[in-house]
Specification:
- This protein is of the alpha/beta class.
- It has one domain: Rossmann fold (3-Layer(aba) Sandwich), CATH 3.40.50.
- About 45% of the residues lie in helices and about 15% in strands.
- Helix 4 packs parallel to helix 5.
- The termini are far apart.
């Protein structure tokens, strides 16, 4: 595993680390922060995507890491431990359509590792780093560019639904939301904010690839830039769990208020494969 290095970390410049930041919403959030004047570091596993970022955005520092490997992930975190950062966004994710494909061992291991295990490993490290930075800090940040320290995770609207036949993807995202909520309570005394993002469909290349190149049929699908606006607004407003778009938030709210037997029947028959 090779790590990029840079000597351009300026102490008065806010720094963000985006895990899963080499494509999709993660990359869009990284570029948005760069445009705001932040120093940006991104973590990804695809060497071709990393090479593209190095070529197109040379001031962004890139790190290659396979998040399914705990030892490799820990080595990444060790290499980042000397970097002072003010925000970390966990945007990495893995998805298998369990309504179409029978979940195999490889898919199961990958989704669990990326959507939950690596997330927990990185959030634990990041929270410790931010607490240590606050304790040791004697240097003021440029508050015109940076708000208080924050941890953000990109979950999914699928994680806001609770029913017995939910997929591994939905269950792992639900666990991510619950974990973020626990960190939010634990870090409140340190004035470190924690936000979870539960979005609907976003028109990313990954989603198009899963739908034969065209995801326009997905309900209430939004552009990546629209999603970035929602995420940044949620961070600015310090929303504990931001669910968007509004139409999907209303639908999930109604479904969650249905009697459990009705909800279970509806979602099993409409969303899940027959078991």
């Amino acid at each position: 595993m090779k790590y990029a290095t840079s000597s351009n970390y300026m102490n008065n410049t806010p720094h963000i680390i985006v895990v899963g930041g080499t494509s999709g919403l993660g990359l869009a959030l990284a570029l948005h922060h760069q445009a705001l004047g932040w120093q940006v570091s991104v973590v990804g596993s695809n060497t071709a995507k990393i090479a593209d970022i190095n070529s197109q955005y040379p001031t962004i520092v890139t790190y290659a890491c396979d998040l399914t490997d705990q030892n490799q992930t820990q080595a990444l975190l060790d290499s980042l431990s000397d970097i002072r950062f003010q925000r970390l966004i966990y945007s990495a994710g893995s998805y298998t359509n369990e309504r179409v494909h029978q979940l195999n061992q490889a898919d199961s291991n990958q989704m669990l590792a990326i959507n939950l295990q690596a997330f927990e490993q990185i959030f634990k490290w990041a929270s410790s780093q931010l607490k240590q930075q606050l304790k040791q800090s004697h240097q003021a940040l440029d508050l015109t560019k940076c708000s208080r320290p924050s941890l953000v995770c990109i979950a999914s609207i699928a994680g806001t639904m609770e029913y017995p036949y939910a997929s591994l993807y939905a269950k792992s995202k639900r666990a991510m939301i619950a974990t973020a909520s626990a960190y939010r309570a634990a870090l409140a005394p340190y004035d470190i904010q924690v936000n979870a993002i539960a979005s609907g469909y976003i028109d990313t290349q990954a989603l198009r690839d899963l739908n034969n190149g065209d995801a326009s049929h997905k309900p209430f699908i939004m552009s990546t830039q629209t999603a970035v606006s929602h995420v940044m607004q949620a961070i600015d407003d310090d929303v504990e769990l931001a669910i968007f778009p509004r139409s999907m938030r209303y639908i999930t709210s109604v479904l969650n208020h249905l009697p459990k037997p009705v909800l279970n029947w509806l979602l099993r028959s409409k969303l899940d494969k027959t078991r």
